[in-house]
Structure formats: C-alpha cells, structure tokens
Amino acid sequence: MDNLLPTLVLCLFSVTATAEERPDMAATDEVLRFSTVNDFGSITRIKPLLTKAYAQVGYEIEILEMPAKRSLLSAENNEDIDGEALRVKGAESFLPSLIRIPVPIASHPVAAFVTAQNRFQVDGWASLLPYKVGIVAGYVEIDRRLLNADVVRVNDAEQLMLMLDKQRIDVAVVPESVGTLALKRAGLRSIEALSPPIQTTLLYHYLNKKHVALVEEVTDALRVLTGRPNASLISERVQAAE
Question: Which of 174, 125, 123 lies closest to 145 in space, CA to CA?
C-alpha cells in the first residue's frame, strides 16, 4: 500500500490560501478540541491538514496528546473533547458518540518488535499466536486482532519495550513509529522491528455527534486537501483486502 503522507504533504503545500485571500473560506472564531495518542508520529504531519480543513468551515482546532486508552475514553466521555484526531476504521464500536469522517488521512505500519535472539518470520496476525504478546491498551485494532492470543496490556510503549527487554513478553506489537520512538527514549539497542510489518492500517478523523452538522463540510474539505475525491471508495477497497 502506498503511504498517504507524502501525498498529503504535497496537497497541503499546494493549498496555501488564507481566509483573507479566499473569501469562500470561513473566518475562525471557535476552537474544537481533539484527543489523540501521544508519541504518535503521524500527528505532527496531520495537524496542519486538520487545521486547514476546519479553518475552511469556521473553526480553529487544538489537539491534546495523551495515552491511547485515555484518548479513547476522553473522546467518548469528556464533553470538552470534540472528537479524536486519528483512529482506525472500526473504532466506532468503541466510540458510539463519534462519527468517522470517511476520508483516510494517514496510514501506519503495525510492527512486531523482538529481541535479537528471538527473531521469527512474521506472516500476518496468526504468526503471533504461539507467543506471549505485549500491547498498549487503547489501540483498538491491535487488541481486536489479538483476541485469541496470550496478551499482556500496558499503559505506554516505553513500558512495553522495557518488559520486552526483560523477557517478560516474547513480542511487542505497536505502530512502528511509536515503538521506534519508545526504544530511543528507553535507550534500548537490542530490540528491533521485524519485517515485513504485520499490517498497514488506514487512519481516519472522528467527530463527535454534537457536531453532526459539520460532517459533510469537513468530509468535503478533507477530500479536496488530500486530493482524493473518491477517498471513501478507495479506503473500503484497501480495508477489504487486509
């Protein structure tokens, strides 16, 4: 699957008009707050996209980074949070108060991390079943895929990598960018991400149902900014192939 991020960067730089330059772009006068997973590398590149999309419909945005499970719960239960910046398709079952904007705005590989002496051949999710697997609570797609595995859940990726280093688990499964950053922060050099990734996952923006009137406008803005007018159809085909 081609990575969506280079396309998004090009599109963002090609759509540079401000509200003053474009009379059809609404002036921003209200702030919407979105939770997201901390240490999620994609968010620094996606924030400009969401900022521009919401500026076009009259809003400023603020993105609040927090642990994965807390982000999930905050988006669903905290009335001061207006949605989630990025989540996988299917998170609707955990977030009934949120609406998925049907335009994929990022993709990330999910990787299996192991110590050097415990390498094995990755071949999809089933190849993890013989092992004790560590994951970060709140990554709903990873959790769903490992329902039949021997799973240990922790609060953050750095804690997960420390457990792996101490051989309390056999393999750690997290988004590759999240795991790589956790290894750097923990100073661990004997752990690596296996290749190929287990899965490359599309990510979507979620908006609280109290803002249902904005869904169509935000969807249209993101389709234009990503350069994908048929984005929902593309994403359905990709997800079906996984």
Answer: 125
